[in-house]
Amino acid sequence: xxxxxxxxxxxxxxxxxxxxxxxxxxxxxxxxxxxxxxxxxxxxxxxxxxxxxxxxxxxxxxxxxxxxxxxxxxxxxxxxxxxxxxxxxxxxxxxxxxxxxxxxxxxxxxxxxxxxxxxxxxxxxxxxxxxxxxxxxxxxxxxxxxxxxxxxxxxxxxxxxxxxxxxxxxxxxxxxxxxxxxxxxxxxxxxxxxxxxxxxxxxxxxxxxxxxxxxxxxxxxxxxxxxxxxxxxxxxxxxxxxxxxxxxxxxxxxxxxxxxxxxxxxxxxxxxxxxxxxxxxxxxxxxxxxxxxxxxxxxxxxx
Amino acid sequence: xxxxxxxxxxxxxxxxxxxxxxxxxxxxxxxxxxxxxxxxxxxxxxxxxxxxxxxxxxxxxxxxxxxxxxxxxxxxxxxxxxxxxxxxxxxxxxxxxxxxxxxxxxxxxxxxxxxxxxxxxxxxxxxxxxxxxxxxxxxxxxxxxxxxxxxxxxxxxxxxxxxxxxxxxxxxxxxxxxxxxxxxxxxxxxxxxxxxxxxxxxxxxxxxxxxxxxxxxxxxxxxxxxxxxxxxxxxxxxxxxxxxxxxxxxxxxxxxxxxxxxxxxxxxxxxxxxxxxxxxxxxxxxxxxxxxxxxxxxxxxxxxxx
Lengths: 303, 306
Hints:
With about 300 residues, chain A is mostly helical. Chain A has helices at about 20-45, 65-70, 75-105, 110-120, 125-135, 145-150, 160-190, 195-200, 205-215, 220-235, 240-245, 255-265, 270-295; strands spanning about 50, 60. In chain B, helix 3 (about 55-65) packs across helix 16 and helix 4 runs parallel beside helix 9.
C-alpha cells in the first residue's frame, strides 16, 4: 500500500479506502453546501434579477442592478466612505502598533504585563467597543466630548459627518491595534540579533536600526497586516458602525457592508443588495488572492 | 538588547504606559459610568471616581436585558461553534491528508474556496438559507418535476412543500458560522508535519484508520486544538450580525445583542449606567479567557491567520 506517485498535500503513508474519507468529509461539505455554496450562488443569481417588493414576479435584468448601483449617489458615497474609513483605520492601526511593538521589543521589565493589557481589546466584542467609544464621545454625557468642547471645539457626531467618521475610525482602530501588534512583536523578535549587533558596532543607533534593518525585514508582515486590516475594515466593522452611528449622519459613515444590510433587510431591495454582495465578494476574493500570492511563504510567523 | 540606553528604555516604558492608558480609558470610564446613578451619569463633567451603585446597576441590567437567559445562549452558541468547527475540521483535514481517493483534489478545492469569502458578504442569501434550509431540496423536487411524475404514475395529486426553519434556534445561530475552512486549513498544515513513521508503525501494529486518528493524531493535535478553540470561542461569543438577523425572539438572542438593546437612544431614558454595567458583564468571559490563557491565545491568533 505504499504510494508510488506523490500527490501534493497527501501523506506518503496513507490509506486507500474510498468510503471512509467520504464519510469524514460529509459534515464539512454538507455545511458548506447549505451555508456557503448555495447562498453564494443565490446571491449571484439575484444580482441579475429584479424582484418586485411583493415577490410576485421576477425578471432577468442583465446588469441593470449593477448600473443602477453605480449611478446612485448613495452607493458612490458609500464607496468613498469605505475607502476613507479603511485607509484611516489602516494608518492609525499600523502606526500605533508599530510604535508599541518597537517599545515592547526594547523593554525587559514588565514586558508580559504590557503585552497582556495591550492584547485585551481582541477579547472585546466590536459592538461593545463601539458602545464604549460612543459613550466617551457622546455630546451630552461623554467625558472626552466634554473635554473637547471645553477646548472650544465644536463636537457632535450625531450631526457632523466628519466627527462621526473620526469616532468610528478611533473605535475600529482601538479594537484592531492588538492584532497588528502581536504580529509585529513576533516579527521584531525574529530579526536576527547578529544583524542588529553588527549595525550597532558600525555606529547605528536604535532608531536608525529600526528604520533601516527591522522595518525592511518586517515588509512582508506589514503587507500581510495591511491586507488583514482591509479585510477587517471592509467586513468586520459592521457592529461598530451599527452601535456608534448606524451609518449616519446622512450616510457619512455608511460603509459598504452596512449598506448591504440596510438595503437588504431594511429597504428590502433584494436585487440591489445582492448586486452589492457580489461586488463585495469580488473584492474579498481579490484581497484573499493577493494575500495568498504574496504573503503565504514570506511572512515569518514564529513567536 | 544590543546596547544599554536608559533614556530610550525610559521613553519606551512611557510609550507602553501610554498604550495601556489608551486601552484602559474606555474600560475605566465604562466602569465609572456603570457605578453611578442615572442622575450622576448625566452630570457634566462626569465624576472621575467610581460611585457605589455598580451592583445595583448590574442587577437592573440583568433583569432589563434578561442576561440569565442571554448569557446561557451565548455560552451554548460559542461552545457549539468551537466544538462543531474543530470536530468537522479535524475529520475533513484527516480525510484529505491521510486518504487517497478519487475526488480528493476536488474536495480540497471545494473546502478551500470557502476561505475566500467572509460570511458578511453573503448576508441576505444566508438568511434565506437559514429561514428555510429545505429550500434547495424543494428546488430539486421542482426541477425534476417529481410532483408531475407522481401524478402521471399514480393519478393522485400531491403537494410537496418542504420547510425547515432555523430562525430562533441554536443550530441556526451555530451552523452558518462553522461554514468556513480556516480551521481545516490549519489542521491540514499540522497533519502534513506529523512524521510519516507514526502511521507506518501504527499499521504494523494493526491499527485501523480511525484508531490511528483517535489514539495518535488527536493527542498530537492537542495544543493546536486548544489554541484554536480559544480563538473560536471569542469569535462565537462576540458575533453580532448573525444573532441580530437570526433571532427575532428576545429569549433566543445572545448577550452581545442584549447589550446593544441597553444603549440609550435619543427617545429612551439615558440609562448609560445600566448599559455600561451590562457591557462590562458581557465582556467578562472572553476577557478572562484571554487573560488566563494568554500564551495559547497568542498562538491561536497567529496560527489561525496563516
